[in-house]
Amino acid sequence: MAYIAQVDFKMDGPFGDEMAAGFSDLAKSINDEEGFIWKIWTESPETKEAGGIYLFETKETAENYVKMHTERLAGFGIKGVNAKIFAVNPALTEINKGPVK
């Protein structure tokens, strides 16, 4: 069963094209994480928040990633990371065209 990790945190920027350019290497490195399937990057310059929605193969790989990522963000000076992990209901997600495969 696949698992979603939802992560968000306060961040002063950069956002948009600057964020894409600055975090490109980080984005590429996420592809190598165990159990990783995909990520949707999220940002809100208005509320100074960023994060992502991730899909992992198992609950364990999602939990391991969230732990590592929270520690990495702390190293960047980002604290107060909100993270939740949810099981995916594949039957209902398929009806709504969710990319869980």
Reconstruct the topology from this structure:
Blueprint: E1 3-10, H1 16-22, H2 24-30, E2 36-44, E3 49-56, H3 59-75, E4 82-87, H4 90-95
Antiparallel strand pairs: 1-3, 1-4, 2-3
What is the arithmetic mean of pLDDT?
A: 94
Extended strand count:
4
Q: Can you write the helix and strand succession as a string?
A: EHHEEHEH
The profile of the biggest β sheet is: 4 strands, antiparallel
Give the number of domains. Answer: 1
Q: Structural class of the helix and strand makeup?
A: alpha+beta
Distinct helical segment count: 4
Helix share, percent: 25-40%
Shape type: globular
Rg, rounded, reads 14 Å
The first-level CATH class name:
Alpha Beta
Pfam families: ydhR
Protein name: Monooxygenase
Organism: Planococcus chinensis
Keywords: Monooxygenase, Oxidoreductase
Output the keywords.
101 residues, alpha+beta, Alpha-Beta Plaits, 4-stranded antiparallel sheet, YdhR, monooxygenase, Monooxygenase
Structure description:
The structure is a single chain. The chain is of the alpha+beta class and 101 residues long. The protein has a single domain (3-95), classed as Alpha-Beta Plaits (2-Layer Sandwich). The protein is built from four helices and four strands. It has helices at 16-22, 24-30, 59-75, 90-95; strands at 3-10, 36-44, 49-56, 82-87. A hairpin with a 4-residue loop joins strand 2 (36-44) and strand 3. It is globular, with a radius of gyration of 14 Å. The protein starts with a strand and ends in a 6-residue tail after the last helix. The relative contact order is 0.27.
